[in-house]
């Protein structure tokens, strides 16, 4: 049996997992990233995570059978060279040759993957996409990340930039997106987009429960608060999720026409809104996509939200060595 | 050396090509489809095309080394079973088991491919996309067809419906598309979309040269006529191509963010408008796509417009047998 280590370097936490090639999680460690303490501290935290999942392996044979370490990381990555050029939220992170550092330290090969791609691969391997060949993954968070799985592998495109699935246009002149352009799906349906729409609508709906829940402080609005209000019957909150479902549905209908995937997996905190979001989304997808393209389509929330990134990172190590 | 026959079953013509595995065209035949005469007549015309490219091969060895016949066809296709369920413009075409018919007749395997995918594969193999790995192809005609080449192969999706690239949404409530939904790229930038926009704009621009060229009969408007007027400096015609470039640019920018392809190939008659179309299109793509995703991107017109479908069909036969 072969083993691999997967590391998910997140803005808040580092999740480290030791897995076997059959997809079983052998050991797991979660620790805070403490990115504000800078590059060297984060590299040390990551190394500690790796050591922790290794140290309990009494069986030396396991250690010997580890094919590599996979690391899922945000920012700008060179997969081939093993360099992370930029890491958001970590000061003085500057072209870190991360695979050389850990290869030297642990004596095994190190492979990098983009965090959204890692999460997609993790969900494909042992999560919601298990058993499929072609999968689209949307990570609904502050922004909207994406991952494309084709024939069980991450599709990277010509130079690693493929899968920016949040940046499909829904309109010519919609709200401005973080990428600088108007009308991306991300500008409508990410947490930032949802909060912006909520603030606009609240101006004319002062009676909404959302106001009370944030005690009048609009900076406190989060998707979770909107969900809370919606579950208590607040009409504005319900409308906001309905609109969000519509926007996501428009994007997913395009993705169905383009990819004809077996499954679209939605990950990230927002999927907690569940049927509030999924119902209007499905309605739009059914209306807007080709019937043949969605004949057997599933749209499901992620199954392993906490571990998908690390699991996908471990799978990356398996795929690049075996 | 291995050989394959490629057939492009078009609405107007049937193109049949004999190729070797290195991509050299050995023999070629073009004949009218005469679809109005019905199924059996079309099947006979196709068989005649195949016989014609074969009969001049004095070298019996060539015939012996033919791996198969590939057929690129419009309509609804079952690739695995080798059935064409529907063929637009051919009466009484009803679930024709085309691969069984020709396999029996010629004694070699027969493989089907969708016509837009065939054209994409042909352009990838020996045309504008030669030497690339990942390519997107848009066929600009009455509608907008698409083909996705990943790692040198057509990407089909879960059940063969992938690649409907004309049906990416550009707006929530744009003009109605042939697919029934508002706002698809096809509704803006296909020949039908262009002619619709031209007619609208002509209402307020009675002095346009386009009026004269069609002798006041708006039914005679074609993209070629608009190009003719634009080349003579007609402002309205220039604006129409500029807008078309903008719409295509919006779609292609999304495709760059999604696929990060090495090349986008545009085929079909409309590419004759050339810089009238390509300049505004590139301007929009540069503005709207991620810099990394278009760093080395090429957008080129097809190189083998007449043969792409048949060449891709021959390549299909090679790929499925070798």
TrEMBL record, chains A, B:
<keyword id="KW-0418">Kinase</keyword>
<dbReference type="GO" id="GO:0006096">
    <property type="term" value="P:glycolytic process"/>
</dbReference>
<keyword id="KW-0067">ATP-binding</keyword>
<dbReference type="InterPro" id="IPR000600">
    <property type="entry name" value="ROK"/>
</dbReference>
<comment type="similarity">
    <text>Belongs to the ROK (NagC/XylR) family.</text>
</comment>
<dbReference type="GO" id="GO:0005524">
    <property type="term" value="F:ATP binding"/>
</dbReference>
<dbReference type="InterPro" id="IPR004654">
    <property type="entry name" value="ROK_glcA"/>
</dbReference>
<protein>
    <recommendedName>
        <fullName>Glucokinase</fullName>
        <ecNumber>2.7.1.2</ecNumber>
    </recommendedName>
</protein>
<dbReference type="InterPro" id="IPR049874">
    <property type="entry name" value="ROK_cs"/>
</dbReference>
<dbReference type="Pfam" id="PF00480">
    <property type="entry name" value="ROK"/>
</dbReference>
<keyword id="KW-0547">Nucleotide-binding</keyword>
<dbReference type="InterPro" id="IPR043129">
    <property type="entry name" value="ATPase_NBD"/>
</dbReference>
<dbReference type="GO" id="GO:0004340">
    <property type="term" value="F:glucokinase activity"/>
</dbReference>
<keyword id="KW-0808">Transferase</keyword>
<dbReference type="GO" id="GO:0005737">
    <property type="term" value="C:cytoplasm"/>
</dbReference>
């Amino acid at each position: 049996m072969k083993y691999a280590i997967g590391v998910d370097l997140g803005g808040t936490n580092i999740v480290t997992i030791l897995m076997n090639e059959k997809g079983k999680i052998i050991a797991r460690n979660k620790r805070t990233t403490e990115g504000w303490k800078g590059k060297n501290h984060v590299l040390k935290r990551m190394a500690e995570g790796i050591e922790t999942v290794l140290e309990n392996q009494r069986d030396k044979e396991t250690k010997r059978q580890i094919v590599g370490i996979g690391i899922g990381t945000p920012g700008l990555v060179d997969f081939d060279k093993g360099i992370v050029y930029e890491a958001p939220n970590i000061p003085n992170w500057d072209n870190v040759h991360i695979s050389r550092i850990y290869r030297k330290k642990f004596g095994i090969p190190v492979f990098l993957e983009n965090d959204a791609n890692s999460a997609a691969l993790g969900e494909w391997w042992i999560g919601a996409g298990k058993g499929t060949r072609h999968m689209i993954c949307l990570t609904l968070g502050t922004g909207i990340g994406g991952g494309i799985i084709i024939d069980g592998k991450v599709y990277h495109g010509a130079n690693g930039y493929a899968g920016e699935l949040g940046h499909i246009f829904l309109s010519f002149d919609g709200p401005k997106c973080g990428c600088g352009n108007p009308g991306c799906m991300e500008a409508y349906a990410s947490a930032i987009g949802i909060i912006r729409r909520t603030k606009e609508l609240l101006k004319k709906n002062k009676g909404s429960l959302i106001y009370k829940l944030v005690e009048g402080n609009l900076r406190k609005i989060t998707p979770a608060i909107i969900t809370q209000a919606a579950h208590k019957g607040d009409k504005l909150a319900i409308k906001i999720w309905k609109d969000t479902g519509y926007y996501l549905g428009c994007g997913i209908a395009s993705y169905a026409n383009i990819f004809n995937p077996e499954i679209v997996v939605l990950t990230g905190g927002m999927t907690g809104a569940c049927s509030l979001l999924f119902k209007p989304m499905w309605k739009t997808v059914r209306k807007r996509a080709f019937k043949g393209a969605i004949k057997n389509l599933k749209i499901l929330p992620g199954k392993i939200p906490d571990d998908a990134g690390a699991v996908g990172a471990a799978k990356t190590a398996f795929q690049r060595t075996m």
